[in-house]
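Long-time lurker, first post. I've been practising inverse folding by hand and with some scripts of my own, and I keep getting stuck on stretches where the structure tokens seem ambiguous. Below is the full token string for one chain I'm working on. Before anyone asks, I'm not after the true native sequence, just a reasonable design that respects the backbone. If someone could post their per-position residues I'd love to compare against what I wrote down in my notebook.
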């Protein structure tokens, strides 16, 4: 072969490699995606939920336990960010994540591979809780970073309440006193006339729950205002004006119920802080009524889930992703689902959404942290207050992991959820207007 022939052979080989490389890479990507999809199909529902929670939790809790979250987290801000202190993002990340995974970490230990993950996350979480209030830690959170602190301190104490035995009780007395001091210091901020009243109520109720000094008026105001904002059929308005969004799921229904639960636990049937529907029946009667409303709202949420495992995308804060399903998840975890909803159908419905949300696209950035978007990365859906720490509220849909693997929620056969039955031609229960005034609309 001549020198010229050899040269052309090398050139042609190089060109052939260049042209074929993209096709080969695409083929490998398709192969990997198919392989990943097959892996998911071989997993149980519980394994899928635990896998998602581990993927969300590991970068956050490992780094924060080492005092490196604020150093290493790849932070993303909304394109319309309002220039508030960026430090709020780290409290949002930690508090919102823990509010969802706390029930899971509160489970007793066993000899399963899942338990090894729980043990590791729990160990990291306890150290992270310590660092969060240690002024000498690089991951001391922004307790004085403005009014936004009211929001995420509420999720933080909600996590401590939901995982009380495993997350609050083992903390040192020094750390507990630091939390009490930081929570009491939040009196420097007043809430706007919205769902934020429940954030201050959550903080004050937790102070009451752990035997510290608290501001009863902040609880009293919140309980009265939220009750005034109930508009019927399981829905509350967010302040005096109704907003058609998912804040009933993100905040109002769950926190209202948990505040009443703490009041009942520590004050009995309180008839001063909480009067029920214009009379003196007290906090226990109010709790029963609020639970019924949440059950009705969960019936609506379950019907929102399409046969394909999607739900309507509307309203502000939609990058919170699966936090939309928090009331449904919370009632399942607390074993308080309404009779219309079975464990098997709720588990199957949430699993279908989770598989779509977390296995069809990549919702994490290059650092392993959630990225702003809904399905994948698209910052245009962010609000002016959104950072990627805000998005960890998606963990709230996974609270039923706090039920042991032997519970009926996990062992019951999967059932079609309501819209799947309806759109596949199966019989399904009708819905109806709820909580009517029977003295007026007697025919219903």
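-- Answer (accepted) --
I ran through it position by position. Result:
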């Amino acid at each position: 072969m001549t020198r010229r022939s050899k040269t052309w052979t090398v050139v042609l080989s190089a060109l052939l490699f260049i042209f074929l490389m993209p096709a080969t890479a695409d083929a490998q990507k398709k192969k990997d995606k198919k392989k990943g999809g097959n892996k998911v199909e071989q997993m149980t529902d519980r394994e899928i939920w635990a896998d998602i929670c581990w993927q969300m939790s590991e970068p956050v809790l490992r780094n924060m336990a080492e005092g490196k979250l604020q150093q290493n987290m790849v932070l993303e801000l909304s394109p319309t960010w309002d220039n508030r202190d960026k430090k709020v993002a780290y409290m949002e990340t930690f508090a919102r994540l823990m509010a969802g995974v706390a029930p899971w970490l509160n489970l007793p230990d066993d000899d399963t591979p899942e338990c090894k993950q729980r043990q590791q996350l729990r160990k990291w979480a306890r150290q992270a809780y310590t660092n969060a209030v240690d002024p000498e830690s690089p991951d001391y959170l922004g307790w004085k970073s403005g009014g936004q602190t009211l929001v995420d301190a509420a999720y933080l104490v909600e996590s401590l309440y939901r995982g009380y035995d495993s997350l609050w009780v083992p903390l040192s007395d020094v750390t507990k006193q630091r939390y009490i001091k930081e929570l009491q210091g939040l009196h420097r901020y007043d809430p706007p006339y919205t769902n934020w009243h429940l954030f201050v109520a959550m903080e004050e109720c937790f102070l009451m729950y752990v035997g510290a000094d608290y501001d009863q008026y902040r609880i009293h105001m919140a309980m009265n205002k939220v009750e005034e904002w109930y508009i019927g059929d399981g829905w509350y308005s967010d302040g005096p004006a109704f907003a058609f969004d998912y804040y009933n799921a993100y905040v109002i229904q769950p926190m209202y119920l948990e505040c009443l639960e703490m009041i009942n636990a520590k004050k009995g049937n309180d008839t001063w802080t909480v009067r029920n529907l214009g009379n003196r029946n007290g906090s226990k009667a109010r709790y029963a009524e609020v639970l019924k409303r949440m059950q009705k709202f969960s019936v609506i949420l379950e019907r929102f889930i399409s046969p394909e495992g999607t739900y309507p995308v509307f309203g502000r804060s939609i990058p919170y992703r699966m936090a939309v399903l928090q009331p449904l998840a919370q009632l399942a975890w607390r074993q308080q689902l309404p009779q219309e909803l079975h464990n098997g159908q709720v588990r199957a419905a949430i699993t279908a959404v989770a598989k779509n949300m977390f296995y069809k696209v990549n919702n994490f950035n290059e650092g392993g942290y959630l990225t702003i978007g809904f399905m994948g990365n698209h910052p245009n859906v962010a609000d002016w207050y959104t950072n990627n720490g805000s998005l960890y509220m998606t963990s709230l849909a996974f609270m039923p992991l706090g039920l042991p693997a032997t519970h009926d929620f996990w062992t019951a056969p999967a059932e079609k959820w309501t819209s799947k039955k309806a759109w596949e031609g199966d019989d399904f229960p009708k819905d109806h207007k709820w909580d009517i005034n029977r003295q007026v609309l007697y025919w219903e």
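A couple of notes from the structure itself: The domain at 55-423 is CATH 1.50.10 (Glycosyltransferase). The CA atoms of residues 150 and 199 lie 6 Å apart. Happy to go over any region you disagree with.
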